[in-house]
Amino acid sequence: MPDAGESRGRELVDLLAREHSLTPEQYEELVRSFSPALAAYAAELATAARREVYGDDVFIRGLIEVSSYCRNDCLYCGLRRSNRSAKRYRLSPEAILACCERGYELGFRTFVLQGGEDPALTDAAVCDVVSAIKSARPDCAVTLSLGERSHESYQALFDAGADRYLLRHETADPAHYARLHPAELTLERRLSCLRDLREIGYQVGCGFMVGSPGQTPASLARDLRLVEELRPEMCGIGPFVPHHATPFAEEAAGSVALTCYLLSLLRLLDPRLLLPATTALATLDPRGCERGMLAGANVVMPNLSPMAAREKYELYDNKAHAGSEAAEGLAELRRRMELVGCRVVVDRGDARRR
C-alpha cells in the first residue's frame, strides 16, 4: 500500500492528467515526490495518454549537425568558443543535401539542421539550403536548431520553407540560467526568441537539461510551468552530461530515472506534445531510448551527419552517435521499438492540432 507521500504524489499525477495544469508549488511538490513507484505510475498514465493521441507510432527525425563553430561560451557545452581543443567543421550545402537524399531513401521525412551559433550560417546561406531541401522533397519537414537569432532572421528562414524551430531554454530559473551561461546570455532573451518563433508561425520546440549544476526541484517546477504556459509543439529534455573541457567537467551526470519521470509528467501536462527520447538518455543508458518510450516519449532523432562530423560535434563527453542512434542503425531501432510495443513509421510526424 502506498505511504502518505506516495499517495499525495499520485493525487498530483492524477490531477495533472485530468487538468493538464498545476500551480508552481504543486509542480515542485511533484518533483520532490519522485520515487521509482511514483515514476512507474506516472509512466503508465503517460503511455495511455500518448496512445490516445498518437497510438504507438514513433516518429524519426534525421539529425544533421551542420557546424561545430559557435560564438557563444555556455559553460556546460563542449562547442563553447573557449574550448581551444574542439575540432571545428562546417558542412557544405552539397553535403547537407546529400544527407537529406540518403535519409529520404531510408524513410526519414523530417530533417533537423542543428549547429552552433556560427556566424557563417547567415540568413542567405541557411535560406538557400532550406529552399533546396523543400524544392527537392516538398513532402518533408525541415526543422532548424541554430540558436538565438533576430525576429527578422527567423522570419526569413520561415519564408524560405522552414517548418519547425528547436530552441531549448535549458532552465526557466533566471539565477540558474546565469550560473550556466556567460553574462551576455540571458533567460529573458531566450524566452523572447521563443515568443518570436511562436508569433511567426513555427512549430516550436523548447527543452531543458535534467540534473545540471545548481538545479533544484524549484528550478524544474519552473521548467514544467513554462512548458504549460508556452504550449510548444515539442519539448526535448535529457540528463545533463558533463564535457571534459568545460568548467563543469567534474560534475556528476544527471539522472536517467528522473528524466524519464519528467517525460511522463510532460506527457500528462500536454498529451499532444512531441517528446523525444534524446541522445543524452542513450549516452548514459544503452536502453535509454526504450526507457523514454515507456515513459511516454514518441520521437527519436537518429544521426544522419557524416561520420567525421559526428565525432567532432561533441556537446558532451561520449555522445552516442552509432547503433540505433545513427541513421544506418534504423533496422536495429525498429526492432528495439517493437520490443517495447512501439513502431517506427515513415511520417513527417507533425504535432496534432490543438
Overall structural class, as computed from helix and strand content, comes to: alpha/beta
Mean pLDDT: 96
User: What is the C-alpha radius of gyration, as a whole number of Å?
Assistant: 19 Å
- Tally of individual helices: 14
Q: What is the CATH T-level topology?
A: TIM Barrel
The CATH homologous superfamily name equals Aldolase class I
Low-confidence stretches: none
CATH class: Alpha Beta
Q: Into which percentage range does the β-strand content fall? A: 5-15%
Q: List the domain count as a whole number.
A: 1
The main pleated sheet reads as:
6 strands, parallel
Order of helices and strands: HHHEEHEHEHEHHEHEHHHEHHE
Secondary structure tally: strands: 9
What does this entry show, briefly?
The chain has 354 residues and is α/β, with parallel strands linked by helices. It has helices at residues 4-19, 24-32, 36-54, 93-106, 123-136, 151-159, 174-180, 187-200, 217-230, 256-269, 279-284, 288-294, 307-312, 330-339, and strands at residues 57-60, 62-67, 110-115, 141-145, 164-166, 203-210, 234-239, 299-300, 343-345.
